[in-house]
Each structure stands twice: as C-alpha cells, then as structure tokens.
Amino acid sequence: xxxxxxxxxxxxxxxxxxxxxxxxxxxxxxxxxxxxxxxxxxxxxxxxxxxxxxxxxxxxxxxxxxxxxxxxxxxxxxxxxxxxxxxxxxxxxxxxxxxxxxxxxxxxxxxxxxxxxxxxxxxxxxxxxxxxxxxxxxxxxxxxxxxxxxxxxxxxxxxxxxxxxxxxxxxxxxxxxxxxxxxxxxxxxxxxxxxxxxxxxxxxxxxxxxxxxxxxxxxxxxxxxxxxxxxxxxxxxxxxxxxxxxxxxxxxxxxxxxxxxxxxxxxxxxxxxxxxxxxxxxxxxxxxxxxxxxxxxxxxxxxxxxxxxxxxxxxxxxxxxxxxxxxxxxxxxxxxxxxxxxxxxxxxxxxxxxxxxxxxxxxxxxxxxxxxxxxx
Length: 376
Known about the structure:
Layout: E1 6-10, H1 14-25, E2 29-34, E3 45-49, H2 50-59, H3 62-68, E4 70-72, E5 75-78, E6 86-90, E7 103-107, H4 108-122, E8 125-128, E9 132-137, E10 141-145, E11 148-153, E12 155-158, H5 165-169, E13 177-189, E14 197-201, E15 207-212, E16 217-225, H6 234-244, H7 252-260, E17 265-274, E18 280-281, E19 284-286, E20 292-293, H8 301-318, H9 324-353, H10 361-372
Helix pairs in contact: 1-4, 1-8, 2-8, 8-9, 9-10
C-alpha cells in the first residue's frame, strides 16, 4: 500500500527524475511534465559527492552512472603563477560511506540521459514541451499544462528548478538571489595528470579549477565577481575566459588550447535561497532547486535535490496516506540538512568576497561533509 496512486512531477531534472524512478518502481502512476522541448544535450560537467552516489544506488542507476563518470578520491590545491605547484593534497570525507568513491565527475547530459532511461523503464510517462501552468486543489490536485487540464493527481511534485513555476503557483514568494559571484564553465579535454578535482585560490579570480568527468574529458571553471555577461557573443565569452585564465599554469595550458580551438564557455551567477517550512501547500510540494539553491562551493546542490527525492518517495511508498505526520517527518529530515548546506556554501563564497584571510575554510567544509555522511 502506498500513500499515493497517481503523481504528477513538474521538471525532468535530477530531482524530478529521481522521484519518478522511485515512485514508478513502487507501482505508482507517474506523469512527468518538462517545459523544455527535449532533453538537453548541452552542458558542461557536474561534481557529485558520495551521498549523491548513495542515492543513485538506491535508484538502481549506480552501475550506469559509474560507467559514464570519473570516480576519484581527494582534492588538490595548486598555487597560481609559474608551474602551478601543488601546495596541498587533501583527503575527502566519503559522504556516501565506504562502498562508494568520495566523489565523481561526469558530463551533465550523460547523467540526464541515464536518469531519463531509468525513469521510462520503470514505467514513468515523460512529456517534453509541457509546462505546468496551473493547479487547483480539492480532494486531489488538478494539474494544468500549457493552460489546459491534464488530469487529477494525488500529489504534484514541483521539481522544476531555480525559476520554478510551481513555486509561484502555490504562492511561495522565496526565490533565488545573487550572491555576488559569477562562474565561467567550459567542457574540455582531460590531461593525463588530472585525476581529481584541483583548485587554485588567488590570482585575478576568486577560484580557478577543474574536475575530471571521463577518461578524456573534464570541465574547467573560473569564479569571479558577478558581472553582466549574459548578452555577449560566444566568441567574447571564450575570449574572456581565456584572458582570465592566463595567470594559471599547469593543466590550464591544455584548457586554453581547447578554448582557442573552439570549446564553448558559458556564464551563470551563483544564487542562494531556501523555502522555509513547509515546502508543501496541501498536495503540492517542492524539492530540489525549486526549494533551495546555493553556490557550488561544496558541490552539494545535486546531492541535496536527490536526497529530497529519496526521502519524499520513501515516505510516500511506505505510508498509507498523505497527512500532517508525513509532512512533519519530511521537513524534519530535509529542511535542517538543506539549510546547513546552503548556509555553508554561501559562507565560503562570502569569505572570499570580503577578503577574509583567516577563515576556517577546511573546518567548515569537513564539518558539512561529516554531516552529509549520515544518511538523510
């Protein structure tokens, strides 16, 4: 017996597809509505901590994801300037436990394709080019897509990202706010010497770094003060990333060669927000980036969305009804944990914006990692 028989999910991102997989596996009828016309083939890479990998295993997708990514242990810190010497080799907390790597990088499009495949094989119906535009609640939830009713559901899960339409439809005012930092990203080839994430602090930007995503690939990034970079041409984007990277040597020499050869650079701002309890309004609930966002300074954004989906679907498939007790447990298990990640991620960036040189960066990062090592 499950608490729901028929569920609608807005959004076919990581959180939405994770929820779809678990519910469909339990025999729940699941319809996923994604506003984009198709699964995006674009994107750079994603860093996944061990607690995200633990969720993938629960979904039954871990073997496919491990084969498509690049698992690694530890983090290197390099100095800017000539030679880019490694100044520290830091261990990672295995937040997923001993059965999983400490971290893994992989191409975002590959992750999206794998989760979509598992959702469809489990029986979920996924519609692209279908934006949720309205909800009406009574005994259940009447869902409207592109202005037309598509059916009545026991629950609507809003997993439709940072600019969630569902969040607005249920009257929640919280929304992402810029933190003051922006990030350049590019998907490039991996030099053989790069076997884990590496970060450079100092120089003309706050952070320069890269993460391996496969045998031959990695994604590189530069974190700067947020600027209005959104209407520039592709050529100018590549030029700016090239110029800002010139203070960094080592593997950055290879990255620049790829940028000069035509690798695309894209730019986004870091944001922060968290919806205070409750994340639901009746039979509509938010998860993932719709409920919380933070800078990727500790690489926990995707992991937190995955944990939202896993905890919610556990409760929905183990209980007999959607009641106050279910929501109380969901919020007790998710809100403090997500808030801790948001607060720590924002703090790490703010220390850099403020030029704080004696901040306990390692202590904060390892403290959060130890919290994440305890299953949600």
